[in-house]
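Here is a complete protein record:
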Amino acid sequence: MKVIVISDIKSKEESIIPYGLNLAKHLQREVLFVHVVDPRVQQGVPSAVADSSSVTPDTKMTQGEIIEKEILQSEQELETYLSYEISRLNYPLRWDLDLSIGSIENRMTDLAADYPGSLFLLSKEPDNYIFDSQKETIDISKTFNGGCLFVSPGEKFVPYRSVLIPSVFSKNEEKWIGKIHDFLSRFRPVINMLGRPEHFADEEMSALLEIDQLFPKATVNYKVLDKGHFDEEFIDYAEMIDPELIIIMEEKVGFWRSLFKKELIRKLMETNDSPVLYYSRNSI
C-alpha cells in the first residue's frame, strides 16, 4: 500500500501535501506525489520575453513547448516544497514524484492497478488546474479500484480517534469492512456506525456481533435509524460527534443503493470539515 497524493501545488488554497506526508509517516508507508499536465487545457500563447521555452520575444510557444515548461516548473516547485516539508518530519520517509502528461483519471486508474490497496489523497477544493470542479473530483473517484481520502485545504493530520461509518447492518457489509480493517487497526479509534437496517430482525443483531469481532481492540458504537431522511440525519450526526474521519463505501447491490445518495459525499464535503474516505463500488 502506498499513500498517493494528487498534487495541488497550483492551487491558491493551502496544500494538502503536509497532511499526506504525516499520514504516510503514521502508517509507515511510502508516499507518491502525482502531478499531471493535461494537454487538452494547454494552448500555445505569445511570449512577451525570451525564456527557456521561446527563442525570441513575441514568438508563439507551441503546445509541446508549453507542456515541457509546465512539467519542468511543476517538478521544481514540488521538489522545493517537498524538501522543506519533509525536513520538518524528522523521519526517513520514502517518497517519489510521478509527473506525466495526459488525463488525471487515466493516471489514477493506472496507479490503482499498479499499486493495489493504495490510498489516494485529494483536496476537497478543486485547484482549477488538475481538477476543474468538486463534481469532477467525486466522479473520477467512482471510476476506479481504489480508496479516495478527501481532505480540506490546509487540514492538519491527527490520528483518527473517532470514525463514522454509514451502515445497513447487514452481513454483506463484512466484506468491505474487512477491507478497511488493516487501515483502521493502526489507529484503534472509536467506530461509530449509523444507519437503517435492511430488515429489523435477529439477522441484524448477528451482523452487529460479527462486525464487533472484526475490531476486537476497538470500541464500536451503533445508532439505528427507523425513519427520516438518511442524508440529513447522517450529516447532522457527523456534525454532532465531529469525527476525525468519515468512511463511505458504496455497495454494488441491495438496499444500499437507495440509502446511499450520490450527493451525500458532496454534501459532506461542503458542510463538514472531517476528512472523507470513499470507496466506490468498483473497489469492492
Notes: The two ends are 16 Å apart (CA to CA). The domain at 162-283 is CATH 3.40.50.620 (Rossmann fold). DSSP finds nine helices and ten strands in the chain. The first strand starts at residue 3 and ends at 6.
